[in-house]
Amino acid sequence: xxxxxxxATGEELxxxxxxxxxxxxxxxxxxxxxFELMQHAQELASMNRVPGDYACFLGAGSYRRxxxxxxxxxxxxxEFVTAYTPYQPEVSQGTLQTAYEFQTLVCxxxxxxxxxxxMYDGASSLAExxxxxxxxxxxxxxxxAGSVSPLYRDVLETYAQAPGLAINTLDTDLADPSxxxxxxxxxxxxxxxxxxxxxxxxxxxxxxxALLIVSVDPISLGIFKPPSDYDADIVVxxxxxxxxxxxxxxxxxxxxxxxxxxVRQMPGRIVGKTVDTxxxxxxxxxxxxxxxxxxxxxxxxxxxxxxxxxALMSTVYMASFGKQGLKRAAELCYHKSHYAAGLIxxxxxxxxxxxxxxxQEFVVECPLPPSEINERLLEYKIIGGLDVSxxxxxxxxxxxxxxxxxxxxxxxxxxxxxxxxxA
Length: 423
Prior knowledge:
CATH architecture of the largest domain: 3-Layer(aba) Sandwich
Number of helices: 13
CATH superfamily of the largest domain: Type I PLP-dependent aspartate aminotransferase-like (Major domain)
Radius of gyration: 23 Å
Order of helices and strands: HHHHEHHHEHEHEEHEEEEEHEEHEEEH
Largest sheet: 7 strands, mixed
Helix content: 25-40%
Strand order of the largest sheet: 2-8-7-6-5-3-4
CATH class of the largest domain: Alpha Beta
Structural class: alpha/beta
């Protein structure tokens, strides 16, 4: 095989990999029997703290939310659990229909005209959107608001390496006013939980010939305007909040929707609805512009899964909640987080770090490093917020969702007061 591709040695084949990767040695434990392995797994599992025993105020992109029992009941059925890519539509109608329903609900949620079958997660959705904008505008730089999740930005920078896209930070004006900016990327609510002025940012992008990409929290759309109202060109998001447990960070499903005029540059696949020769409803893969289906130079992405099972979880969640249910969930998040912010802001030594409208998360300036406070909070059986001291002095990003009770919020405030008193 090396001769066929013109490479002399295996080392030469992997010469482009960083040396830091090559230096790492796998530190694998000795082989174990099935019995020993199960015993070891049980010992590891017993180290976990029971979630129900702890009040959790940690969010930052992955949230504990109420998941209706119907979600697990439907998605645990064998025909869904074992389903894979529907290459043969005639025997995959059920899988294709669930994908079509997912796309439809994402369009209704975001107000956009077309949605795809799903991406890996919110971060890769945002990165794919930036590549898509570069293809559409034929420009080679992107402007990212400084309030976008740093985790999302890390993924974007990885995706941007191969095509050579420049990534600039957007402050009050386009980072590259020369007209080379393909898109302006913002998060709504932003990483710190606050709402951005999308009317201004939309005008800023379009006045410079760039596209507006909005990474949105889908639950917030229960009470806030959808990105379509701000003339967003591409809307992405993390679907985990809708029916998917945090699960140690995955698997999740990315939301991806855009204006109809850009549909042929969308990554992934789109399921369409039609009729067969007997006039019966039929579902087909209408658009599949990924490397597995067409020539690499014409592909819009190399995404290799539709995250179909996780997308189904979000589909069942949206269908079971409906408009009013989603609105109620969003209202609970909004009011509980504001109740928590009011209590904490009144504690000596603590203050709300940012002024503005927030949805379910806010940043607290603490009298001690958040890492120390979080360690102490565990003694109260409370999981604190995310330490964002690298961006805001002694900043802690606190989240409150519909699962946080008044008693838990009161307990958090009381614990913070006790910890702060000893500072």
